[in-house]
Amino acid sequence: MKTIIAEKPSVAREIAGLVGASDKKDGYLTGSGYFVTWAFGHLIGLGMPEDYGISGFDKASLPILPNPFLLTVRKVKKDKGYTADTGALKQLKVIEQLFKLSNSIIVATDAGREGELIFRYIYEYLKCSKPFERLWISSLTEKAIKQGFDNLKDGAAFAGLYQAAQGRSRADWLVGINATQALSIAAGNGIYSLGRVQTPTLALICKRYLDNKNFTVKKYWQIQLSHNKAQVDFKSISATKWDEKQLADDTLKAIQRGATPTVSSVETKSVTEQPPLLFDLTGLQKEANKRLKLSAEATLNIAQSLYEKKFITYPRTGSKYIPEDMWAEIPTLVRALQNREDCKQALTKIKWGRFNKRIVNDLRVTDHHGLLITDKVPSVLNADENKIYNMIALRLLEAISQACVKEITDVSLQVLHYDFTAKGCKIQEAGWRSIKGSFTDDGEDPVQELPELHKGDELAIKEAAVLEKQTKPPVLYTEAGLLSAMETAGKEIENEEERKALKNIGIGTPATRAAIIETLFTRNYIERDKRSLIPTEKGLQVYGLVKDRKIADVAMTAEWELALQKIENNEADAGTFQKEMEAYAKSITDELLQTSIASTNQPKLTCPKCKSQQLIIRDKIVKCPDEACNWVQFRTVCGVQISIENITSLVNKGKTSLIKGMTSKAGKKFDAYIVLKENAESSFEFEKNKSTKRNGK
User: Which parts of the sequence belong to the Topo IA-type catalytic domain (predicted)?
Assistant: First the structure.
């Protein structure tokens, strides 16, 4: 017997159907010489400090450097602590029994770092020594799975991938656990979560926010002229930018008194715009954020759903190319779209027999090729799935189309010794831009068409006006902008040698960047302001504490990503990397323990229940640190945030000021005081009859 282990039940069922394992059992399927089971994602993970006998946050225990690292069954929060997930324990017992009954194993978890880690941690935890092979596929179609089974790979060939995944997992533990505990101990009030990739990402957001906030906007003025020649309207703009409006007005009056614009030069050049490459995951997330306002996490979830329904290839890819041996399949994929209404217009623009092979590059394909549709075309999808699918399908059509050729004309004019410029564009060959019918990129002004102009031509002025403009601050990050910054973090490094070495290295990976952003939301470090990402007060406080520390260093994080890539490619030693991470963890722990936490002007309040402990004031709750007392007051009551002033009044005087605009469970608005009863429980008191309505916690 052989055991096939997939990452989740849905994939296991697909595989079971193809290998003839149709007999359903509890936690697996069997038949035709196979057991087919699944892992429910990460069943096994690295143990927490408690598993090493270290409880709470203790300065004397830092840094925590496990040797060896312990593996534990996935845990869930229960009461004040964590306990093993009963579902994970049950499935793990199934897997253990199947491994014992099998001669060998076929690994069918996702073909990437995390998929490899999911299996290897289970294999190691169960102390299994059975031989295993790897099913390495980029699509869940029947054809792809069958091809994968015909070409199973030796498990040993993925040792580098496992070591990179394990190295990443341990590095995140060493940095996250030690840095979080060190800063929280230094703060002495609340938990300040830090992480190997999370903190540099927060630093990017905070720095951009502060640069934007502290930017001094300056006004300037330019003169715009309107012309007409050969029945073509066009405009020119002054090269001069006046700092004073009066100077621009005076120049305009002089021009209006009869000055004649004269063409001083005409430069025309042909520009070839190559089509975009296929989407990788980050590219898809950026486009979906720009076009659909979807978060990176939402886009990944939608893409994963489309993948599991067999409509697209593996979404967690970092490549925009396909290998040479896949090129023959592209016409089949394009023909499949003929049955899709949303693509019919675009398909009329395709040049059959002249497909552009720019997406073919064996050397640029990583674990997986660029995002493609499959030959299974959907008929029914929900709205967001439909939009994401269309993005991927239309990007394929763009990628195989010919280049767009534009004729760009730059005209210089002289008016009263002032230089004016006019820029024109003429589409000579639409190429890939005809697929969507868009001929300029987002953020670009539509380029006007110019009449035929020659040096020495004199032009009439139809209209003339002074335009008020202003310098623009650095734009706040959207998720699309942040993903770009994470992807190209190496390019922002100031040291030239480091920048060259890391120019194509980002922070995080395509598969993890969405989760990193979501973690910052969960930690209440960032929030959305319309489409922009801005730091919260807590996020700015953490940034202020760590911005000059090693843990916020983007260059160092990019170097780690490069090291992990080398380990994956068997070009670097995983043991050396771990020793470097341990030394780094010790360094940042020492650094953070010495951090001085500035007072946040929060009051020192004594617990109203036990009368002995100082309350811990956090973003969402105020609580007594004594677990035996366990007094707590939520900061948000019926939809209204309770201010520090009202918390102080409640604790010290037993009553808040009148809190307005709260919403009952029935959806009705009401105003009330929050008061403390004799047992220190909070409740509502109303303005007129002072009656108590219900608990205010």
Answer: 158-589
